[in-house]
Write a structure and sequence with these properties.
Protein name: UDP-N-acetylenolpyruvoylglucosamine reductase
GO molecular function: FAD binding; UDP-N-acetylmuramate dehydrogenase activity
Low-confidence stretches: none
Keywords: Cell cycle, Cell division, Cell shape, Cell wall biogenesis/degradation, Cytoplasm, FAD, Flavoprotein, NADP, Oxidoreductase, Peptidoglycan synthesis
Strand content: 15-25%
Subcellular location: Cytoplasm
Shape: globular
Largest sheet: 5 strands, antiparallel
Structural class: alpha+beta
Main location: cytoplasm
CATH architecture of the largest domain: 2-Layer Sandwich
CATH class of the largest domain: Alpha Beta
Order of helices and strands: EEHEEEEEHEHEEEEHEEHHEHEEHEEHE
Length: about 350
């Protein structure tokens, strides 16, 4: 293990924001990860787990405690069964499965971060979620001090949520196992209309998995969602807010506000979300509340490519970012009566 003191954390995040950690440990094996966690827990030291840093908003004061960077490696593909170490770079792993002619995660290409983070958020995009292919997650349980293997059902996946997110201080993901599909080099059936349109096919159709991956990367790049050090639109955490899910009463109140504000002929995006609930679009809400692409006059602004991404234009602080986020939340609430929820994990700060 590598150990540093008063270590900068900003370079370990895609926002490039945040102050230093009292101590930073980089672990390259599962045993080192578990040992570092146990040491911190035994000493009563606050612990911050860092993977790819693509879903973290760290306060300007930094983190008083031990930051543990998981840098484990392991890509084991046997037939259609895939096991990834938590520290594997997710987008590289997706590329390797597509090269192997397998389907199931090809539309999750270009998502920054590590494999270990994917079950925590139940990462999803362009019609796919990792919960549809994950079979097991190996995690260290800080309460029982044991390494557990949890089945898909035990992970309690839902939209951008899981057992691990529900109990953020309890589990440390070590390995993730997937069941992919051998469809003779074809993708899984396309579920996302934008992807199908870009490919000139219908939802439900299959295309070569490599073509699906390439198309998703192009779509994401057009929205500033593929990391590029030279492009400040990618100095973000991707989608900063989750799409709101509304019950019947909330939906009725929302539609009334839309009609009052924008006119009776305006229909906001609405998608079934299970249990009689409806999901609407956070990006649509932000845009229609007046926060358009490029909004902001300071060093933290809305992306010029996508209204759902808040960005660091190069010299922002975390407080600059949070001020913008709070402004957006307040504006959407005033306009439509919906309170947006941040998707990234905040450390030492809150909205």
């Amino acid at each position: 293990m590598q150990e540093l003191h008063d270590a900068p954390l900003a370079p370990l995040t895609t926002f490039r924001l945040g102050g230093p950690a009292t101590r930073l440990i980089t672990a390259t094996t599962d045993a080192e990860v578990v040992a570092a966690v146990r040491e911190a827990d035994d000493a009563g030291t606050p612990l911050l787990i860092i993977g790819g840093g693509s879903n973290l908003v760290i306060g300007d004061k930094g983190f008083e405690g031990t930051a543990l960077r998981i840098a484990t490696r392991g890509f084991d593909l046997s037939g259609t069964a895939l096991e990834l170490a938590a520290g594997e770079t997710w987008t590289d792993a997706v590329a390797r499965t597509v090269e192997a002619g397998l389907a199931g995660i090809e539309c999750l290409a270009g998502i920054p971060g590590s494999a270990g983070a994917t079950p925590i958020q139940n990462v999803g995009a362009y019609g796919q979620e990792v919960s549809s292919t994950i079979t097991e997650v190996v995690a260290y349980d800080r309460t029982t001090r044991e390494t557990l293997t949890l089945t898909n059902a035990e992970c309690a996946f839902s939209y951008r949520h899981s057992r691990f997110k529900e109990h953020p201080e309890r589990y440390v993901v070590l390995r993730v196992r997937f069941a992919l599909e051998d469809a003779d080099g074809l993708s899984a059936p396309l579920k996302y209309a934008e992807t199908a349109r870009a490919l000139g096919v219908e939802p439900g159709d299959r295309v070569p998995a490599a073509t699906a991956r390439r198309t998703v990367l192009e779509l994401r790049a057009g929205k500033g969602m593929v990391l590029d050090p030279a492009d400040h639109d990618t100095w973000s955490a991707g989608s900063f807010f989750t799409n709101p899910i509304l019950d019947d009463a909330q939906l009725a109140a929302f539609l009334a506000r839309v009609s009052e504000r924008l006119g009776p002929d305006v229909a906001p995006p609405a998608f079934p979300a299970g249990d009689g609930r409806t999901k609407t679009s956070a990006a649509w809400l932000i845009d229609r509340a007046g926060f358009t692409k490029g909004y902001g006059a300071g060093p933290a602004r809305i992306s010029t490519k996508h209204t759902l991404a808040l960005t660091n234009r190069g010299d922002a602080t975390t407080e600059d970012l949070l001020a913008l986020a709070r402004e957006v939340v307040a504006g959407v609430r005033e306009a439509f009566g919906i309170t947006l929820v941040n998707e990234p994990v905040t450390v030492g700060v809150s909205l």
